[in-house]
Amino acid sequence: LTFFTLPPNYKKQIYDEIFFIVFHGGGGFTFGDVYNLPNHIRRMYLNQVLEIKKKENEQIQKANSKVRRK
Question: Has this prediction a pTM greater than 0.85?
Answer without folding.
Answer: no
